[in-house]
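Hi R.,

Here's the chain you asked about this morning:
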Amino acid sequence: MSHPSRSFLVAGLLLTLAGAAIADDKCLVKAVLGGKPVTMKSCVISIYDESSVTLFFTESPLPAEEAAAFQFNSYPQDKDAAGKPRSMVAFAFCPGGEKKIPSPAAVKSVEMNVAHPSSPFLGRQWVFDLPKDKEILKIEKLSGKLALGGRLAGRITGGKTSDGLKYSWEADFDVQLPQKASAAGQACGP
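And here is the predicted structure, written out as tokens:
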């Protein structure tokens, strides 16, 4: 009867542990944008100065070049490379406030951008001051390691009426931060 070699067993164990350590990104937004329901299951994240992030949710995955451009400039595009409008939601915020430890209570400001392909008039941009605007936007959960290559997980919910149109969102995410910092983003700190 033959026995597997010790090195084969160790190699198999290491591969199993490595696979378990690398988690897949999870992105889900259920939203109503200007009265139009939409579900987005794709997202890209950028990190600036290892203190602020911009989350960019879309209905379908971005092409690699567009995702790389977003991670470089933190600027979410409401049109694809062919100029076709897209549904999108973006949140820019400092997950740790002035510190590097993500916490819902540490977030003091969230910049939000939304668009829907059915009309350019459904797009909106808002800045929410927390905790003052907690009835409109709430960071329900936030955890992770705010560093290049770290992970960030959380849940952002809320809603409001704008020009008589309904907007609401439930955003859940668990994503790996890029290995390279963005050249732009929300400033965190005094």
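One quick note: Residues 4-21 have pLDDT under 50 and may be disordered.

Cheers,
M.
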